[in-house]
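Troubleshooting log. The previous structure file for this entry was overwritten by mistake, so regenerating from the original sequence record. Sequence copied from the archived sheet and checked twice against the printout by T.R.
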Amino acid sequence: MDLAIRRFLAFERKLQKQQDLKKQYTEFIRQYASLGHMEEVKSPIPEVNFFLPHNCVLKPSSSSTKLRVVFDASVKTSNSISLNDIMLKGSTMQDDLFSILLRFRKHKFAFSAPGKFQHRGQLSTTPDEDLRYYRVKAVTYGTTGAPYLATRCLVELANTSHPLASSAIKDFYVDDVMKGSNNLKEAVKIQDELKTLLQSVGFNLDREVELAVDESTDEGVKTLGLTWNPKLDHFRITTVWNEPTKVTRRTVLSDTSRLFDPLGFVNPAITLDKIFLLELWALKLDWDEAIPMGLHTRWLQFRLELADLNRIRIPRYLETKNATVSLHAFSDASERAYGVVIYLRSINNRGDIKVRLLSSKSSGSSENYHSTKTGIMCSNSYGSSNRSCNKNPQHGHRQHTLLDRFADHLSLDAIQALIVSHLCGKQNFINTRVNKYWRYVNTKHNPADLVSRGARPSELINSKIWFQGPEFLSQPEISWLCEVIKEPKDLLEQKTIRTVLATSAVTDHFIDRIDHRNSFTYLKRIIATVLRAIECFKEKRVGHRFLSVAELEEALTLIIRYMQVKEFKAEIKQLRRERSIDSKNKLTKLTPFLDNNSIITVGGRLQNATIPYTAKHPAILPTSNPFTKLLLLDLHKDNLHIATQALRATARQQF
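Regenerated output below.
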């Protein structure tokens, strides 16, 4: 509670300096209270409680919620446990973003609308009033279970008597819906049913349906990371860039994270970014250290060109209605990256051919990760795996699938990689990445070449082969120059490679693996810290800042016991059985016995002497053990480099 109050008062001081933000926040709180989603708690406050610290986030570009309250349910309480620690996360109830966006592109008439779901709750006040406490009565943002609870409610709504609305529920991503139909009346009916169904349980769509009609305007709405213009019916990649200051690993990574492209429309430009990151990470610089001048200049120039990505327009509708549809994947790899790009080719009843960029995927590869040929195999695997994401959508008269055929197009390097891999005995690697639909395509007709090598944004804007595919895809298949790849018949005899693994058990004690820096004191403190950590984990508590004398003594006991077990294993075994040690043993003269810590100590006739116990019964140290030497060296230094006789007398007070 105290932490929540301190953080709220700090947040209140921030609001006093930003009156516009304060006005929006106050209105948000009042509206939320008026809806009955929270109730004021009068004194006394319940004994069992959890106060949620909160803040507000302003997002002017949002079309639905300009201001949103953010809660911190991960804050630790006095027992070092947070609310999120004791909540279950729940399973994933909705489709992935990639699948929802692909289904959204198959409808001739489409709409998108964000929902206003109640995920809020707060502790609120004004500067001239006392603090008031509110109990949240709705699912709260920032808690572990919030995403599952919200989406689970939507899934439950799908089991209703509204079939059209129920189908639209499957196209929700969190609280945003992207749905449509190939029939205008049906699209409007889906919208009406969906609004009625959601309103029946207190959910509301934030704005009216957006139907794709042809009007000359370039305004758009932000939808699942993309900007969709419902009038011109195209997608855009919109990114806001801050003014660059000092260029470091941190700022470069921050700028890179702004490039959100779920379908891979601008992947060639992102590939250049990935390659740059690999080069930068290889230098192993600190996060806030300035990068070398050469990379600094390259990054600023590339960052300046990234603004050109906002000019790219990608048609949303794939024109699959009453058409024969096929997917064509092009893959390629270079020494720096590999990837795949997939196009949808549709032929309508009149024989018109349309080719649309569907999606792409790429990955950067470090110098030691794989060879170019291995990268080509992985890029081919990308093509096959992306195909699996497109099996369910329906279109027109073909109800069972969106696809009629799928084909992979490879560069000449890919064919060479296949043959070489056969000769090198990589059959298992190949079997998981080959496809019977492979075709060879020349590099200049392969759009995946842009993915594997990267392209600057200024080059990508005018790239016809990237957005419309190679020219031969727009022509009848009989005129294609691609050849179907067949497995070579005259392969050399493959050599069977058998790998034999030999393992050896590691018998070293953990003390032997500690870097003690030739200091017994340092070794003792490390072991004391380890022992404290073990106890803290067992009891789930936080230890003190400094090591205690008892903890250091326990560490010393552990070291001595380890030294004796290593050197006097047979003697310890005999003493535990309460048997006398062999008379010829060098320890016999010391009349040894095991103390309560299982350490061999010196016996004798000093039991009644008024001296410390360690002086009566000193522990026996093996002379050949290196830790004995370290211990004596530390005693020598701690006692200001005393002479030999004095050192022996000091050591014998305990050993």
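The two ends are 53 Å apart (CA to CA). Archived copy saved in two places this time.
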